[in-house]
Amino acid sequence: MEKPAQDTGKIAKSAGTVGVAVMCSRILGLIREQVFAIFFGAGFAFDAFVVAFRIPNLLRDLFGEGALSAAFVTVFSDYETNKGAKATWALAGNVLVFVGILLSCITLLGVVFSEQIVGFLVEAGFESIPGKVALTSLLSMIMFPFLIFISLSAVVMGILNTRGLFFVPALASGFFNLGSIIGGVGFALLMPRFGQPPIVGMAIGTLIGGLLQLVCQLPTLFRAGFIFVPRLDLKHPGLRRIMKLMAPAVIGLAPLQINVLINTYFASSLAEGSLSWLSYAFRLFWLPVGIFGVALSTATLPVIARYAALKDMVRLRETYTSSLTLAFSLTIPASIGLIMLGELITRVIFQHGSFDSLATVRTAEALACYAVGLFAYSSVKIMVPVFYALDEARYPVLGSFLTMVVNVVLVWLTIDLLQHQALALSISCAMILNFLFLSTVLYKKLAGYSLHYLFAGLGKVICASLIMALGLFGIKYLFAPLAVASFQGSMVVLAISMVTGVSIYGIVLYALRFKELTMLVGGIRQRFGL
């Protein structure tokens, strides 16, 4: 393999479309977190919200946007390629009905047993604070139906992506954040009149946002030709195949979600605010994961699934290798940027209202630890769907269990020394190990792919990233007094750092003839006659 795969341009274009939409969504997400930071800071109320939201959000990752989405796209692509429109739409309708009924039952159980679930998740230090567990249970009851809306939204997103429609599904999470902000703030201001704390209003806003994320995609779905026929056929071969693919995928994702629960339990035993610091840091960390990892994964999955359905392994290997190389080129410099500029970013975005300078420092510490594993997070998002397309879902399962074990061991060994940083660093290290494991297995399952091409690109990315890091270090040294003088000074230094860092990295990478970048620049020049 001497040049990028023929679908690289198409994938990059689709990923760019998704990335723009995801960036809009993530910016709204940051505004949502700013609202939390200004009104609630890092402490009692937001700690309770983090734990309460983590419960339905965990199940969303487990049953919805993770296992269900990947399994559905694989089977839906096969039906669309080989069985025609009528059978494809019948499958989609059947899946929507099944998912709606299943998750409604799970939601009902979650609401009924919310107090017991919360009690299981938190440590004695959390329970010792009067009213904190009761508030968490109430917030959990309110937000549990979010699971239904967001999982149905994931199925709709899978349908639209398979049809080559990426922008609206990627933008849908922006409607979630918009609903959360407007609805949340509105209800938060009303809650004291009803004898409830303002954070309850933010929980109601989360529910409104989840509904909007589903509803905003429906017009595009119907324009794509979808006709909804309410029908439940548990013996449908397509539904059974999806369930067959989902079963190991759910088992595979379970250890990752158990990691989240384990980290929640440990964090509840640390200083008050630890859960909040980790949550704010993860929101900042998830911005590049969404823009790069999720965008590339979303754009790559339909192409990989199509080649798997056609049994074209040569192009599948080429597409995977180019996509992984692109992921490295975006996530490695992003990691360095988050580590070097983390405190500055946190100060500009969050240090307002109830969010003080101590919270800024602690959040930046957690962000740096999360950033260590950024490339692994994003790369695994590209790799796992390849296993699903090959009907080899058991290997991500093994990788997930490996991740869980490593995470628990590292947390246990380091939490006394590193406190909240241990929770972020341990899961990053565990994800890196998972990435190495899955890379080795996938290399064998694909009968090899071009390691020479991959490592040549990786070497150029690392070189350009190191030169960028030197530039950022120089800017931090020169403008350090301005950065701490005022909020405006911090904004100016951050803007200078980001523009300079991106420019240095892009120029060096292009000078090193990074093939994917050269191809994209050539395409832009050709299109605009430059």
Rounded average pLDDT: 79
Low-confidence stretches: none
> In total, how many beta strands?
0
Spatial shape: globular
Distance between the termini: 28 Å
Number of helices: 21
Overall radius of gyration:
23 Å
Task: Name the helix and strand elements from N-terminus to C-terminus, one letter apiece.
Answer: HHHHHHHHHHHHHHHHHHHHH
Q: Which assembly state applies to the chains in this document?
A: single chain
Biggest β-sheet, characterized? none
Judged by helices, strands and strand pairing, the structural class is mainly alpha
Helical content band: over 70%
Strand content: under 5%
Topology of helices and strands:
Layout: H1 8-40, H2 44-64, H3 67-82, H4 85-112, H5 114-121, H6 124-127, H7 132-143, H8 146-162, H9 167-190, H10 199-215, H11 218-223, H12 237-267, H13 274-310, H14 313-350, H15 357-371, H16 374-389, H17 394-418, H18 420-445, H19 451-485, H20 487-511, H21 515-528
